[in-house]
Amino acid sequence: MPEALTVNSQCYLKALYSACQISATETPNSGGAPKELRLHKKPIRRLLELAGEYDAVIICLGARAAFLPELSGKIPLRTCRGIIAHLKVNDDIRDGYLEDSPSILSDAWIAFHGPQNLQVGATWDWNSRNYSRGVSREEGNKAIEELLHRKASAMCPAIKNLTTVMGMSGGLRAVPPLTPQGSLPLLGCVDELVSGSQTDNKFWLLTGLGSRGLLYHGWVGKLTAQSVLSRDEGLIPSELISWKSIL
After folding, report:
1. Strands (DSSP E) found in the chain
2. Is residue 233 within 8 Å of 241, Cβ to Cβ?
3. Which InterPro entries match (predicted)?
C-alpha cells in the first residue's frame, strides 16, 4: 500500500484528547455556551450509580461494554483477542532498510515506523475475554509462530532474519454482527437495557467500530452527541440502531 498512512492509535488518542482540551478553553462564539472538559476517574459497580450525577451517560468501552452487568449478554458483540509483535530491524542491515517502505496488508499486516521499527499483526482468538495489554510467554510464543514464521514470512521471507522481536502487546476487539451493509457500529439509547425505562434518554451506547473506526469515529461521535443533546435517537441512521431489533 504505497500511499497508506500508518497511525499509532495510542498517540492519536492522546492528541485527540489534547485537541478537545484546547477546544474547551477557546472563547465561545457570541451567544454560544461555554465549554468545559474534565476527566473524572471513579469506580462504580453498576451504571445506574451515574444516573443521578449526569444528564446523560455515553458508554464507550469497546469490547468491555459487553462485560457491564446491565449489558452482559444483551448486546450482540463478539469478543476477539488480538496480539501484535513489535520488531526491530537488526543493526547490521539498517543501511539496506528503507524507512519509507510501504506498509503491507494481507493475511497479516506489516506496519513500518521509522528507520528501525515495525509491527506485525494480528492474531484472532475468538470469544476470548482477555483484555490485558500484556502477553504471557506461552501466548507470545504462539503468536510469533503464527505471525512471524507463517504469515509475515509468506509475504516477506527475509523478515525472520532481518529483525529481532522486541515485545508483544494484546487487546480485545469488539466485533459487531454482520449485516447486509457490513459490520456496522452499535449506537443508540440503551435505557431499556440499563434501567428498564424507555423515556429517560439517559444512557447511550457507542461501540463496535471495528477496524474502520479510525475513518468514521468522528462521524458516529457527532451523531451520538447530537442525539444526546436533542434526546432523540431518531437522528441516528436506522442502520446503526438496527441491532436492537435482533435482541
Report:
1. 57-59, 78-89, 104-105, 109-113, 117-121, 125-126, 163-175, 178-179, 182-183, 186-189, 203-207
2. yes
3. FAD-dep_OxRdtase, FAD/NAD-bd_sf
Q: Note the pLDDT tens digit of each residue in 31-69.
A: 667 788 888 898 999 999 998 889 999 999 999 999 999
Residue 99 has pLDDT above 70, yes or no: no
Tell me the pTM.
0.87
Segment holding 241, helix H or strand E? helix 238-241
> Quick one: average pLDDT of 89-117?
76
pLDDT value for 100: 63
| 78-175: CATH superfamily | D-Amino Acid Oxidase, subunit A, domain 2 (3.30.9.10)
Written as one letter, the residue type at 224 is T
* Separation of alpha carbons 4 and 11, rounded Å: 18
Domain spans in the chain, listed from the N-terminal domain onward: 35-77+177-246, 78-175
Interior angle at CA 10, CA 7 and CA 15, nearest 5: 85
One-letter amino acid of 16 = L
